[in-house]
Amino acid sequence: MKGLPKLAKAATCEKLKAALLAHLKETEGHVTKLEQVFQSLAQKAKGKMCKTTVALLEDGGDIAGEFKGSPAINAALISAAQKVEHHEIATYGALHEWAVLLGNSQTASLLEEILGEEKAANATLTKLALDGTDKEAMGECSCKEDSETECSDRQPAKLRRSVRPAGLNRKRAPALV
Ligand SMILES: [Fe+2]
């Protein structure tokens, strides 16, 4: 919930921003559903920082930082967000299976709902990447050739940049965690 607004803020693609903020709303709902899961197990719900998610977002922040000011930043942010979604899908998938095995249908149903939304969020990000942001990152843009406004998207993306020593000329990465 802390990472998604930062990813959305760093995005320059309006569709990506909207998708990330929509998933933030769903994630708020996941917190409520998880509280219900704990209730059904007669346990007290408490928050715990997920080290894997933090590491994935830190990694995503580093990559996004390298593409700051380039349309490739959206492709980088999608990649970072999808790493987190895949981790969530694996986690909720396992929890759902365990709830089914234990015969706890209420918990299984709540976890299945969350799992479905995580899978849908991942599919939306894949669609956004395939529909535009990856092409934009490669320097293909949809702006009119005769437009008087200069389009930064026409410049070749930094994806094919030359190799340089780590940390040299590196722009500061936006913190996603
Ligand atoms: Fe998610």
What does this structure look like?
This protein has 177 residues and is mainly α. It has a single domain, classed as Ferritin, CATH 1.20.1260. It contains five helices and no strands. α3 packs antiparallel against α4. The longest helix has 33 residues. The radius of gyration is 19 Å and the shape is elongated. About 17% of the residues have low confidence. The site of fe (ii) ion has 6 residues, from α2, α4 and α5.
Features:
Ferritin; about 180 residues; mainly alpha; binds fe (ii) ion; elongated
CATH domain fold name: Ferritin
The structural domain count equals 1
Distance between the termini: 10 Å
CATH class: Mainly Alpha
Instruction: Determine the number of helices (DSSP H or I, runs of at least 4 residues).
Output: 5
Task: Provide a concise account of the structure shown.
This protein is an all-alpha fold. The chain has helices at residues 3-10, 14-40, 51-66, 72-101, 105-137. The protein is built from five helices and no strands.
How would you summarize the topology of this molecule?
Blueprint: H1 3-10, H2 14-40, H3 51-66, H4 72-101, H5 105-137
Helix pairs in contact: 1-2, 2-5, 3-4, 4-5
The site of fe (ii) ion has 6 residues, from helix 2, helix 4 and helix 5.
